[in-house]
């Protein structure tokens, strides 16, 4: 069954090539509750093995939601609704230096809408590469594909959480192929059930 590991491995492989994100990809497990707590730094640290990295910019994946037919005779496609966030710290960079520092006041002149723009560029580029890869994967083994003709959602996020991050929320759909195997049951499970019921 191709599902969560395939999506996470694939997204990581694409984001490893991003010049902006540089592989900083973090699946979160409580639909973002981590973003508003001190846990977020630890969550990211746990994902990046050596722990020596800058936290932001980062791509965050919320738990994908699947919907589809799972009873196909030869297998079927599961559609996934994916929500991701592309975020960076506002007013200062990943090294805590003030962005576009005003020499008179010492404050940042880098507006939040530029964070939206920079992270939207990273999100759109990610989606485009993922779409191209989905076509390529489909030609090889047909285990992943992007939903064609569906609209992608991009919504600005401003000064969120304790780290005061800004960027965009990206919503899109993709699909993975489920084979028809019932991996959690023995091949003779139906016969055994029938024997027990007929007693």
Describe, in plain words, how this protein is organized in 3D.
The chain has helices at residues 4-15, 39-47, 112-140, 189-197, and strands spanning 25-27, 58-61, 65-68, 76-89, 144-146, 153-160, 165-178. With 199 residues, it is α+β, with helices and mostly antiparallel strands. The protein has one domain (4-197). The radius of gyration is 21 Å and the shape is elongated. The relative contact order is 0.19.
Features of the shown structure:
single chain; 199 residues; alpha+beta; seven-stranded mixed sheet; elongated
N-C termini distance: 34 Å
Radius of gyration: 21 Å
User: What's the helix-strand series?
Assistant: HEHEEEHEEEH
Q: If you average the pLDDT, what whole number results?
A: 76
Number-wise, the strands total 7
Q: Which structural category do the helix and sheet elements fall into? A: alpha+beta
Give the biggest beta sheet.
7 strands, mixed
Explain briefly what this protein structure is.
With 199 residues, the protein is an alpha+beta fold.
Task: Chart the SSEs and their pairings.
Elements (H helix, E strand, L loop, with lengths): L3 H12 L9 E3 L11 H9 L10 E4 L3 E4 L7 E14 L22 H29 L3 E3 L6 E8 L4 E14 L10 H9 L2
Parallel strand pairs: 1-2
Antiparallel strand pairs: 2-4, 3-4, 4-7, 5-7, 6-7
